[in-house]
Amino acid sequence: MEKILIVGATGSTGKRIIEILNNSQSFEPVAMIRKEEQKSIFDDMEVQSVLADLEQDDFSAALKGIKKVIFTAGSGSKTGPDKTTEVDEKGAIKIIDAAKKAKVKKFIMLSAMDADEPSKHKELEHYLEAKAKADEHLRNSGLNYTIIRPGRLTDDMGMGRVKLATKLDEAGEIARDDVAFLLIMSLADPLVKNMTFEAIEGEEPIKSAMIELSKG
Fold it and tell me: Which of 30, 106, 122, 199 to pair with 66, CA 20 to 30 A apart?
């Protein structure tokens, strides 16, 4: 089984990914945690965890034996510019570089819709700019990657149906459940390889939407 490091494991989307992967026959999730007291959450799930912080500089221990990375960490759109830069931009860039050094096979990034047009959303501009810089660094890293830019995240039950495009012509929302499945499906090597795309709730089943998108 391939070991998958989940960065942002204690967040809502990260936890959902771990729950799903924990029942997989192909992948073994490893939760990256910032505090020792968070370990018990994953011990109860019988999931391995590693202690590391995006504000540190050495991720070699966290990446030992890891084949792929799913990055779901984020300071949140309501966080101030300094913290956003530290986590969403600098932290992401540091672990991308560490993943390349560790010869990770694929890096999957949870970004944000309109990260390529931060000025469209003045109240989110600093957040989207940080996401955009991390995305660009990943694209230029030489790693195999997938960058998913979802619309507004909701805690609704996922319907398993989405609308995907490299650039959508409409805004929208999407359940965290469905985003988790998009991120997990991206672990499959042929799918959405070296692609950046936006995602909102739609009519097409996730798997067929991703296959269609991969065909270009």
Answer: 199
